[in-house]
Amino acid sequence: MKLINSVAAATLLASVVYAVPTKRAAITDADVLQYALTLEHLENVFYKGAIGKFPLRDFIAAGFSESYYNNLKFVVHDEEEHVKLLTTALTSAGAKPVAACEYNFPYTDVKSFVTVSSVLEGVGTSAYLGGAGLITNKDYLGVAASILVTEALHTSVQRQAAGEVAAANPYGTGLGLNSVFTLAAEFIVSCPTTNAALPVKAFPGLVVSQGSPSAPGIPLTLTAKGPIPKGAFVVFVNGLDTIAVTPSQVSGSVVTANIPSTVSGQTYVFVTTSKPASSIQDSIVAFGPAIVEVTPPSPTFDLAVQ
What we know:
This protein is of the alpha+beta class and about 300 residues long. The protein has helices spanning about 5-10, 30-55, 55-60, 65-90, 110-130, 140-160, 175-185, and strands at about 100-105, 190, 205-210, 220-225, 235-240, 240-245, 250, 255-260, 265-270, 285-295.
């Protein structure tokens, strides 16, 4: 069953609320752990809110199986364990762990919960993949990699529940700290004033206004929180690829570009002031990221390849 409305999901993630204290300084391992704990608190509260609100009968009535519900309880357990592990690691390192914030999660029933969870888990996986390179301590890196594996499993569970291809891309998609913060901050209403400031900033918002769910080659229209700069590019970040596309149309804060042929699954879209050389750099981001779900074509493979 196809439950996800990616236009709605992307819109829910687009308007940034600046509720998390931020700072601009050199990033330390403790900063990365605090950042990871901020995200894990969010996921922990998100899942516990849903599992506490919706009993098994609500999931069955919405068309989900008891097996999915049981898997969901393991996801809840995992997120709590991640919070406890990161809290212990920070305390052991002499830092005061950030506490959970107050959140506003835009689900009203089981189906909208699954819609949001599919997108949120994808962002969480991208956060760990993108943040791994910032960690200098090998022990911390091993812990982050272990959590990354579990988050990727959660992503597959939720994508399949949402009627999407569980593994729509051969490769994971990494996102930088600021890009993830831009998406996650939408859910955060306020945080304790005693929480450590994070070394992040949010980019101006960008939402998909037409063309999602989508497919390669289809026009995608986005609306930015401001005028599209002259000479801008629409950049698709997906798997190992960062693909800059010249817009086919620009009108004020609205921009349209065709989705590249190699893009599939949950994809992050930016408007940049110049064409990225390889991976996208924060300094050229004008707006974004927005999120678009791109339906992959039928898989191909060669049985002769050994």
